[in-house]
Amino acid sequence: ASACYTESPPEQRWWAWGNVVICAGLALTNMPSLPVVVDNILGYGVIGFGIALVLRGLRVHFSSTLSWRTVAVITAIALLVPAYYTLVTPSLRARLCFSGFYFAILNWMCAATIARHGRLRVTGISVAGFSVLGVGLLLRGMHMLLHPDPADSASSLVMGLSTLAIPLAQICIAFGLIMMVSWRYSERLRRLSTLDALTGALNRAGLEIQGKRVGLRALRGGRSLAVIMIDVDYFKVINDSHGHPVGDEVLRHLARLLKMELRPHDLMARFGGEEFVLVLDDVNLAAAINVAERLRARIEREMVELDKLSVRYTASMGVVCSDEHGYDLIRLISAGDAAMYEAKRAGRNRVVGA
Ligand SMILES: Nc1nc2c(ncn2[C@@H]2O[C@H](COP(=O)(O)OP(=O)(O)OP(=O)(O)O)[C@@H](O)[C@H]2O)c(=O)[nH]1
User: Fold this and answer.
1) Which is it for strands 275-281 and 225-232: parallel, antiparallel or unpaired?
2) Handedness of CA 10, 12, 15, 20 (dihedral sign)
3) Which residues form a coiled coil (predicted)?
4) Which residues partner with 304 through β-bridges?
5) pLDDT in tens, 54-79
6) Interface ipTM
7) What residue owns the CA closest to ligand 1's atom 7?
8) Which of 7, 274, 275, 300 is catalytic?
9) Could you tell me the pTM of the whole model?
10) CATH number given to 204-353
């Protein structure tokens, strides 16, 4: 779990700085007492820079980035167009139209960045927030376009609605981003607490949670549930002759091989040192013995290739089914374990059904 907390989440830094910069830009654009270059031009550039930082944070959150060159281009457009409409062809209306449209597009880019990664249950609030913010800004821009005198427009319905929608959207965005980050961390914690770090298979806690679900589903659906216990033969000898790292590689190899052979909804867990459990839904004893025999034969054939070494290993397996032992996973596992030990006693590298 410490891995979860050691890295500080960089996306939050970009979002925090982005919002500070946006607020500073908004403050600048609302200070007519300042020189026109600061109020009309620099203010928009600072807002553009702030939104680009938020967009960079979103890209970082989804494991990519926004280059500083793109941040510079976004900022430069936000600076240069208002500069043109202030210094070259002065027009308050054109400047306000541009800022409405441009900042709407940047907010929609933020919404699209999040929406592209799916999981709307988690990201929906942020997508909605950025989209509504974009619509509010677009309406303001359109209103300026259609309204000849910007001075009249302050009291209009569209301006009133957008004045209400913009802060509401910003609150949604803040909550949405917090949700996205906390979901990311709870997902990481879930993985850390239910998966085996060495092999990526479920650990005992994960097996207990998921096994219960799969068992109940099979019971309700009247389907058979099979359990295969797998134990590597003479694993201690592999460790003692080649060292623990080679033993670890054998375990990883076995987990990869099992995963390849299983259906997506079958469960695979590392039950102890070199012991694995498979839980197969809708499989009776005869079919499970066939699966186990196929796995045993493949394990026997395969070779674990390391730098200067190739290692072969075999496994013994015990197979049981709910038709004979009931649906209680603990009972199934202990019956499977007994069958697996019978396979060991009978000479190893074999499958015993019970
Ligand atoms: N490399 C490695 N070894 C482990 C791990 N967990 C347990 N072991 C080792 O697995 C070995 C298991 O040895 P035994 O229980 O005697 O089993 P075995 O040698 O496979 O003998 P049989 O099961 O009777 O065929 C022990 O030496 C443990 O130290 C692990 O995560 N990595």
Assistant:
1) antiparallel
2) negative
3) 285-312
4) 311
5) 999 999 999 888 999 999 999 999 99
6) 0.94
7) 273
8) 274
9) 0.69
10) 3.30.70.270
